[in-house]
Amino acid sequence: EDKVVQSPLSLVVHEGDTVTLNCSYEVTNFRSLLWYKQEKKAPTFLFMLTSSGIEKKSGRLSSILDKKELFSILNITATQTGDSAIYLCAVGGGATNKLIFGTGTLLAVQP
Amino acid sequence: GAGVSQSPSNKVTEKGKDVELRCDPISGHTALYWYRQSLGQGLEFLIYFQGNSAPDKSGLPSDRFSAERTGGSVSTLTIQRTQQEDSAVYLCASSLELAVSYEQYFGPGTRLTVT
Description:
The complex is a heterodimer of chains A (111) and B (115). In chain A, strands 2, 4, 5, 9, 10 and 11 form a six-stranded mixed beta sheet that branches. Chain A has strands at 3-7, 10-14, 19-26, 30-38, 43-49, 56-58, 61-66, 71-76, 85-93, 98-101, 105-110. Chain A is built from no helices and eleven strands. In chain A, strand 7 and strand 8 form a beta hairpin. Chain A is mainly β and 111 residues long. Chain B is mainly beta. In chain B, 0% of the residues lie in helices and 46% in strands. Chain B has no helices and ten strands. In chain B, strand 6 and strand 7 (75-79) form a beta hairpin. Chain A binds chain B through residues 4, 31-32, 34, 36, 40-45, 48, 88, 90, 92, 95-104, and chain B through 4, 31, 33, 35, 40-45, 48, 50, 56, 89, 91, 95, 99-109, 111.
């Protein structure tokens, strides 16, 4: 059965800390891995990764994929209270354009 | 439109009643998805529409759930005889037709509460 597992389930840090969120997967016919940030209701897109070893960066956020070991990490440096959210990892596989989501990591950044 | 829109934003209904949730995707996006997110859970795939193809209904939890997409645009998710376990946030997303792009754009969701 296809699955996506995220860890930790929740994390509390202080402003300025660096955090690493993990996503491992077992999905047939892997096509891509996506990270989303969910603050209120609608998840907002962060990154899409398709190739191993190529880091994607956006400001203080970066992500990398390891297709051999079947995982990805999302790094956030110099965290701010506005980074507090649920971070969702999703893997697209097969021919049906279906995304399989993990349960997310709840990040709380304290002032 | 500028983004995916959903209505209503919140819905409270009594157990046993039927509800309809609406999704208006981004103009030009031919793929439309419905997900359910229960408290503390990840997004659970419900149903997927791609252009004029038959929808992928493999995620619908029971025959009380159905969805349609009229004219290749607006979609309605219907839950008949609602149960308390149907309480969740129902999210709609759309994406471009090309399968190589899995970037899905989400609407704000409908929070359904069944009392």
